[in-house]
Specification:
Length: 212
């Protein structure tokens, strides 16, 4: 964590100078008063400045990595989380390790999704509301591979629907996976898509458009 000790004419001046030097707001920092200012004779002679220590609080991304590291240890995984992207909207974290991460990902990514939810809740808990953000977990590029597979599956279903003139019912998908399928076919004028059923068995149906 970044920290700085700063002196000033009074506590508030010292705090503001430290915050400016660190480039953070008061909500993003812990402030410790090391010394209050003292006034000497006539308010001038013997005057001493205030001194503070200002430490930047861990952001969502750093907190998420810390939380995730502990959870992985408790689960017995020899894996390391690392921040791959961090902006105002979301912190993206990839889990890498030499061991097989299939168990961590789970069927259709459900274990990874549950881990993402828990990590995000804990990492955001100590943050001011305006600094909270999404936490997106990946494991050795699973999300990218799964997205490519879903896009390919959606395009294949669309071609089948147009060729046969019949709707194609895909396997049960998670909400995120259904969004990927809908987006993959959003610009295909030959088919339409809709979701049907209840989670966790909700599916996407690809239907050919008449006259196409």
């Amino acid at each position: 964590m970044r920290s700085i000790e700063q002196a000033g004419r009074n506590v508030e001046d010292a705090v503001q100078a430290a915050l400016k030097a660190l480039g953070v707001t008061r909500e993003q920092a812990d402030i410790e008063v090391l010394a209050e200012e003292t006034r000497g004779l006539l308010g001038i002679l013997g005057h001493t400045e205030a001194k503070v220590r200002v430490t930047v609080k861990p952001g969502v991304a750093d907190s998420a990595v810390d939380v995730l590291s502990r959870i992985l240890r408790y689960m017995g995984f020899d894996a390391t989380p690392e921040i791959t992207s961090d902006d105002a909207e979301a912190a993206q974290i990839n889990i890498r390790g030499g061991s097989d991460l299939g168990l961590l990902i789970g069927k259709r990514g459900q274990t990874l999704a549950a881990l993402q939810l828990i990590t995000a809740m804990i990492a955001n808990r100590q943050q001011p509301e305006e600094l909270r953000k999404k936490v997106i977990l990946d494991a050795e590029g699973y999300r990218e591979r799964r997205e490519r597979a879903l896009t390919s599956m959606a395009q294949g279903a669309a071609e089948q629907a147009k060729r046969t003139g019949r709707e194609v019912r895909l396997e049960a998908l998670t909400p995120r996976e259904r969004r990927i399928v809908h987006m993959a076919l959003a610009d295909d004028s030959g088919v339409s898509t809709r979701s049907e059923g209840e989670d966790p068995d909700r599916i996407v149906i690809v239907t050919p458009r008449r006259g196409c």
